[in-house]
Amino acid sequence: MENQLLVPCRLCGHRCGVNRLTGERGLCRAGANIEIATYCLHHGEEPVISGTRGSGTIFFSHCSLRCVFCQNYQISQGDTDKRDTDIRDRGLVEIMLEMQERKAHNINLVSPTHYGPQIIEAIKVARAQGLTIPIVWNSSGYDSLELLEALDGIVDIYLPDLKYGDDAAALKYSGAKNYFETAKAAIFEMYRQVGTRLIVRHLVLPNGLAGSRRALDFLASLSPDIQVSLMAQYSPRHLAVRYPEINRPLSLTEYGSILEYAGKIGLENIFRQELTSQTAYLPDFERDQPFSDD
To answer: Where would I find the Radical SAM core domain in this sequence (predicted)?
Structure first.
């Protein structure tokens, strides 16, 4: 049933309508088959996700967004044919079960939206074969409501981005039309499904260009108890050099003002980052272990 969302494709806010099952590729550039870029036990997520043993993190190739500052650009927008042959030949079910055997706290699916139906089927098979650890849906927040309805009862923890509170910025820097309304609807549905097992990430951009206050206003209206991960790790990556207004790291003053605003509007459960995260969390997907701390 979920495969109907691939024909025409309407998994994300682009709703591009291509026939994925016949090999057509839309804006995300994903085909009919899952492409896994890499996987690892990751210790750099929020503490409740990484825990003490690490999160069983699976990075999918391609992405429904085209963020000019993406730190994962090597796999989201790069040449995915260079990915490791061993990973390419292994199935998602096998990898999830391996992560469980390696004592991961959870299965953390990064940039999964464009493979939603295929992932749902793989999770069902893996659970039939003994997978019991929680499933984390780690997305850009640009998920369609139809996809999220199909995920109801499948996903245990939602970990979406709310990248922008400003649609003009979302279009300019991520190529996403109507991002804020799409993400608000998606996050509302995620909250309906899992309640307090929702953690929303927001990356603060230089010069206030993410529309952070508007994004936080929405989250506070949803629930003052919602868990929000306010990220300070922005540094200019990928194509950001072409945009002078974001071609510098975030300042402590800029980050502090957004933290202060979050408290002012009543958001109580905030994950904070140090500015050292701007270099500490930068991955290199040319390495076997993309993160230096893993």
So the answer is: 58-206
Q: Which residue has the tokens 């279009």?
A: 171
- Whether residue 294 lies inside any domain: the answer is no
Counting the structural domains of the chain, the total is: 1
Backbone angles phi, psi at 110, to 5 degrees: -100, 125
- Residues spanned by the domain of 96: 2-277
Side chain identity at residue 183, one-letter code: A
Task: Kindly state whether residue 292 falls inside one of the protein's structural domains.
Answer: no
Q: What is the pLDDT of residues 194-247, one digit of tens each?
A: 999 999 999 999 999 999 999 999 999 999 999 999 999 999 999 999 999 999
- Give the CATH number, domain containing residue 268: 3.20.20.70
| Max Cα–Cα distance, the chain, nearest Å | 51
Within a domain: 282: no
164-199 CB burial, b ≥16 within 10 A, e <16: bbbbebbebbbebeebbebbbbbbebbbebbeebbb
Residue with tokens 């997907």: 285
Cis-peptide into 47, omega within 30 deg:
no
pLDDT top residue among 277 and 232: 232
Q: What does pTM read for this prediction?
A: 0.93
Residue ranges in 175-276 assigned as alpha helix (H):
179-194, 212-222, 252-264
Does 63 show up as a binding residue in the annotation? Answer: yes
The rounded distance, in Å, linking the Cα atoms of 62 and 89 is 18
Contacts of 268 (CB under 8 A, 6+ apart): 224, 225
Q: Where are the beta strands (DSSP E) in the chain?
A: 36-42, 55-60, 107-110, 135-138, 157-158, 199-203, 227-231, 269-271
